[in-house]
Amino acid sequence: MEPTEDKILANIIAIRNKKGFSQDYMASKIGLKQSGYGLIERGDRRLQVFTLLQIALVFEVHVVDLILYPTEFSTREVDDIKATLTVELKKDKKDQVLKLVFGDNNLEILNK
User: Fold this and answer.
1) Which fold has domain 5-80?
2) d(CA 99, CA 107)
3) Are 24 and 35 in contact (CB under 8 A)?
4) In what helix (H) or strand (E) does residue 49 lie, and over which residues does it extend?
5) Which of 9, 19, 31, 101 falls 20 to 30 Å from 49 in CA-CA distance?
6) If you average pLDDT over residues 5-26, what whole number do you get?
7) Cis peptide before 3, with omega less than 30 degrees from 0?
8) Are the C-beta atoms of 47 and 9 separated by less than 8 Å?
C-alpha cells in the first residue's frame, strides 16, 4: 500500500508523541508558530517537502522513516549524513591549508 499524506501525518504525530515533543516545541524547532504547525498535523495546511525534511531532522530520523513508520522506523543518527565543503583559496593559502590539514603528506596527496 502506498503511503498517503494522511498516513505520513499520522506517523509524524505518533513519533512526536513517542518522543514526548509538544506541537509548540516542534513549531519552534522548524520556525513556525504552534498554530501553523498544528494546521500541518491536522492536514489543513499542505505538508511541504522542506517541512518534512525539517521534521525528520528534529526527530533525528531519515525522511523515509517518517513515511514508513512504524515498520521501517529506526533511530539512526542524523550524523550519518555526509557533507562536502569546498573552499577556494589562492595558491599560497592553499599550500598553507594543505600543510596544516595533512602535514608533510600533502605533496603525496596532490600528486595522486
Assistant:
1) 434 Repressor (Amino-terminal Domain) (1.10.260)
2) 9
3) no
4) helix 49-59
5) 19
6) 94
7) no
8) yes
Grid coordinates of 20? 514526548
Identify which has the larger pLDDT, 72 or 69.
69
Assigned C-alpha cell, 49: 517537502
User: Taking the complete model, does pTM exceed 0.90, yes or no?
Assistant: no
- In the chain, domain spans: 5-80, 82-112
Distance CA 68, CA 72 (A): 6
In contact, 13 and 42? CB cutoff 8 Å:
no
b/e sequence 23-60, b meaning 16+ C-beta within 10 Å: beebbeebebeeeebbebbeeeeebeeebbebbbebbe
